């Protein structure tokens, strides 16, 4: 190959590594696959555990109940009457007697019910008590991912400050791939629980590093809002595809098939990261970031984090409880359990992309305030549905409103750091991801227990009222004040590397002369 032809791919890679758009593509794909794996298990796990544990246990007990057939030949006293006039036996009550079988001239008795009762004519699954307990177990399994992510996130934020964002992104891909393969071949609750927890570690690396990378690349607030909206569109698309894709593949192909497809897509994502991000390169932040505990003492960051937590807690409570409620009340087949989340996913995709631009114009605080109110109203309407079509409106409104909150709060987190702290974003997006994970940890783990105690409708009432009550707090983010020491800290620690929110020191003209230092001291 001629030298000029060899230089073309190298120039393309060099241009790609310097392109902000390709960085956005990498983050988009990583969030897409993470959230596809997050939601693809939602319709699979409840029915898989029901089939393997409840139906498997009953099928093993049924033969033992049907084996002792000979004693059934004995009839209770006075169950039949023999007529010597025409040599026939007339059955009065009970089962057929041994004498009747010998004579072979009996009148057919009424059919007896089988040893195991047939399924209800409505097609609803049996085992009400098992399904009630399964609410709690499935909720804990879903929450394990968020609980692990909750613990790992602060460490990942510190790690990104030390070595940059590229290596943590690639570590997240590797762990995500291992988790996906483990999901494909897990056949017990314990293995599924471990795979879900492992996914939490990989998701922590991918989300914190990816969002921090975007915030560092897009320093302008308007551009950052648009980029965050597109990246959250990847999250929304993963949620959109995951549940319907999982339910259809599980129904018609098998349990392992959706996870094997995701594992293949994860390999493509890893190849993309190798080409664009250079994960072997250590790129530490030039400025020391604000400590996590300092950020957690900022009331404005806490208000934004709370909005992320409570708005996402609603859909997190729906994930383990809605499929089981549909199985009990609507007698829904397996493919409908995932399709029920389709309206929420489509509207979330629309909301994040639409309000990534509109939120900056209408005010992000107002966008999040309206979004949280609509989240609460939509959750209150979910129990009113009588079939899957009745869930279209509430779930659609829920997804659209969560898209409003997420697309407004993610840029606000970066803006608050620029305005009130040092412009290093690993720690603040670790806090944002912690808030997101708290919703997905508290929601499923407590939702299943609440459903078992007081029922699914009351669960929706509780979380809906919480969102409506929290919404007015978003007004506090209308005009957050800047800290006075912000400019002084930036001038001392990083006079030459500032963002659009900071004021740079006046630089001396070049070329410098020997008397430049003396003149500068006199000027000060």
Would you mind describing this structure in some detail?
- One of its GO terms (biological process) is aminergic neurotransmitter loading into synaptic vesicle.
- One of its GO terms (cellular component) is synaptic vesicle membrane.
- By secondary structure, this protein is mainly α.
- The protein has one domain: MFS general substrate transporter like domains (Growth Hormone, Chain: A).
- The chain has helices at 3-17, 20-40, 44-66, 98-103, 128-163, 166-185, 189-217, 221-252, 256-276, 292-296, 299-329, 334-339, 342-362, 364-381, 392-420, 426-454, 456-470, 485-493, 516-523, and strands spanning 80-83, 88-91.
- It has a two-stranded antiparallel ribbon.
- Strand 1 and strand 2 form a beta hairpin.
Shape: globular
Number of strands: 2
Termini gap = 61 Å
Supply the number of helical segments. 19
CATH topology: Growth Hormone, Chain: A
Q: List the uncertain runs.
A: 61-79, 92-122, 493-514
Order of helices and strands: HHHEEHHHHHHHHHHHHHHHH
Spatial arrangement of strands, main beta sheet: 1-2
Largest sheet: 2 strands, antiparallel
For the record, the CATH class is Mainly Alpha
- The domain count comes to 1
Q: Could you tell me the mean pLDDT?
A: 75
| Annotated CATH architecture | Up-down Bundle
Helical residue percent band = over 70%
Oligomer: single chain
């Amino acid at each position: 190959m001629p030298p000029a032809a060899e230089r073309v791919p190298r120039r393309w890679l060099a241009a790609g590594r310097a392109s902000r758009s390709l960085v956005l593509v990498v983050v988009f794909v990583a969030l897409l696959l993470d959230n596809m794996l997050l939601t693809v298990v939602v319709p699979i796990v409840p029915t898989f555990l029901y089939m393997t544990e409840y139906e498997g246990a009953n099928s093993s007990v049924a033969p033992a109940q049907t084996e002792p057939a000979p004693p059934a030949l004995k009839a209770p006293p006075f169950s039949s009457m023999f007529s010597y006039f025409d040599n026939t036996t007339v059955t009065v009550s009970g089962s057929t007697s041994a004498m009747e079988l010998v004579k072979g001239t009996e009148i057919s008795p009424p059919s007896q019910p089988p040893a195991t009762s047939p399924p209800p004519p409505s097609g609803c699954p049996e085992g009400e008590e098992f399904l009630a307990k399964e609410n709690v177990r499935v909720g804990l399994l879903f929450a394990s991912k968020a609980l692990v992510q909750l613990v790992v996130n602060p460490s990942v934020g510190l790690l990104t400050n030390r070595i940059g964002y590229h290596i943590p992104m690639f570590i997240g891909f590797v762990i995500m791939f291992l988790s996906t393969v483990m999901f494909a071949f897990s056949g017990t609750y314990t293995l599924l629980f471990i795979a879900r927890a492992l996914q939490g570690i990989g998701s922590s690396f991918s989300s914190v590093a990816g969002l921090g990378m975007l915030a560092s690349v897009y320093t302008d607030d308007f551009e950052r809002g648009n980029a965050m909206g597109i990246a959250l569109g990847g999250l929304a698309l993963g949620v959109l595809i995951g549940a319907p894709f999982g339910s259809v593949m599980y129904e018609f192909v098998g349990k392992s098939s959706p996870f094997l497809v995701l594992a293949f897509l994860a390999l493509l994502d890893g190849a993309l990261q190798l080409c664009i991000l250079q994960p072997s390169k250590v790129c530490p932040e030039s400025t020391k970031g604000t400590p996590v505990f300092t950020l957690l003492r900022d009331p404005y960051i806490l208000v934004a984090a709370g909005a992320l937590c409570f708005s996402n807690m609603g859909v997190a409570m729906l994930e383990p409880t809605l499929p089981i409620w549909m199985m009990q009340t609507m007698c829904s087949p397996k493919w409908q359990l995932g399709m029920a989340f389709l309206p929420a996913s489509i509207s979330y995709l629309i909301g994040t992309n639409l309000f990534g631009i509109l939120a900056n114009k209408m005010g992000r605080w107002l966008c999040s305030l309206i979004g949280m109110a609509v989240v609460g109203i939509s959750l209150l309407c979910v129990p009113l549905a009588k079939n899957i079509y009745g869930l279209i409106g509430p779930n659609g409104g829920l997804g659209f409103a969560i898209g409003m909150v997420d697309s407004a709060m993610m840029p606000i987190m970066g803006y608050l750091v620029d305005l009130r702290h040092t412009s290093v974003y690993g720690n603040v997006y670790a806090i944002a991801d912690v808030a997101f994970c708290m919703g997905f940890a508290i929601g499923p783990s407590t939702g299943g227990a609440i459903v078992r105690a007081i029922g699914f409708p009351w669960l929706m009432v509780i979380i809906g009222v919480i969102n409506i009550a929290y919404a007015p707090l978003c007004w506090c983010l209308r005009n957050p004040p800047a800290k006075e020491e912000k400019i002084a800290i930036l001038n001392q620690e990083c006079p030459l590397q500032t963002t659009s929110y900071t004021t740079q020191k006046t630089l001396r003209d070049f070329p410098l002369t020997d008397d430049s230092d003396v003149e500068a001291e006199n000027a000060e």
